[in-house]
Amino acid sequence: MTQSVVVQVGQCGNQVGCRFWDLALREHAHVNKKGLYDEALGSFFRNVDSRERDGGACAVGGRIQHLKARAVLVDMEEGVVNEILQGPLREVFDSTQLLTDVSGSGNNWAVGYLTYGSAYREQIVDKLRKAAEHCDCLQCFFLIHSMGGGTGSGLGTRVLSLLEEEFPEVCRIVSSIYPSAEDDVVTSPYNSVLAMRELTEHADCVLPVENQSLVDIVNKIRQMSHGGRPGSAIKRDSAVISGQGGLSGAEKPFDAMNNIVANLLLNITSSARFDGSLNMDLNEIAMNLVPFPRLHYLVPSLTPLYTLADVSVPTRRLDQMFSDAFSKDHQLIRADPRRSLYLACALMVRGNVQVSDVRRNIERLKPSLPFVSWNQEGWKTGLCSVPPVGHAHSLLALANNTCVKLTFMELRERFTKLYRKKAHLHHYLHVDGMEQSFFSEAVGSLSSLIEEYHHLDATKGRLVPDAPRLGIAS
Prior knowledge:
Helices cover 42% and strands 16% of the residues. The chain contains 15 helices and 12 strands. It has a 6-stranded parallel sheet, sandwiched between helices. A 4-stranded mixed sheet has the order 9-12-10-11, sandwiched between helices.
């Protein structure tokens, strides 16, 4: 059995991580009725005997003693991490997994990447190594961060490059939250573009999630619950609500949005945590979905998202769930993948779903989904028998699709507006080690990425003829 380590950096990364651990514990409690430490729990949790001085790990198969998350928490402000340590999840982490400062990164990528990245390098590496040493077979690092602030974008991407340095063979999957155009942080376009260069160079896969998409989804769900018939409400155990089974009490303002990202992580890790008739290895995601190393941005979509508790509303039929996964409303970035070009696509299905159901739906949807000519069969599927709590089945689609370039173009445009006026540049250039060339190189990297997607888009609808065969002399 393999293990994975979650590294959560910055305020947003730690808030999303907190929701992930809460919902993961709820999911395992729902399945694990005997209170035994099994391989499913072992993939993301250690079982520690607190009676032993060094907190010795208990073997798989024994009673659950104290579960500790396989995680490293990093933030240059104490607020969110302190909140976690005072909340219901406090027992899941210990001080060896935490790294905080008091002053924050001032919404400045350079402070996060250069100042804190250098000052805390040894401590970060030490915590990552300790987390890795607790694993028998470390398969993957999941990094959760946001792109708009200073710590998430700067220190988050510095941690990513350290992961590549220290653990080059271990898969690095990054969940990146992209800021909306109306973001409070005026320098967020700088931070995002500087971080993008690092993601393109050092990640194996990036799952981009747009803040604006999360806002739109949550608003639509709330609208549906308030606009429905009397008594209709959001399901207590749906993807957007903590649910009574969770550890956390009252919902916080961003919980609904963070829960959607946490559910993305629950679904992508479900094959690693539970049995299924067709388990998908985490390494296989990058191996099967990334034909070109730089084009590793996988657009996620989740279904069910819009589920009401009103008994008269039927749950989505299985075939409808597959259709939803490709619709604009279920994407976690604002894009319509059906209008762009697919390089490859993974379907991660949970619940009582047969391989034949998946094949039938792929055949049904295939004619409406434009795939690149040299990878018409570019589908990867995973079946996990354990559905999410409160649902009969669920589906996560990860699409390597050129529609992601629109997000990048919009980001470049916002960056250029600021950079043209040299607005706020001095805040960055005052940081030791920061040079103006970082900006031009970062936007150059982003432009060449966009150009690569443009080139692929230009091949849409153009079938490559079979290569001429050698004639045999008679």
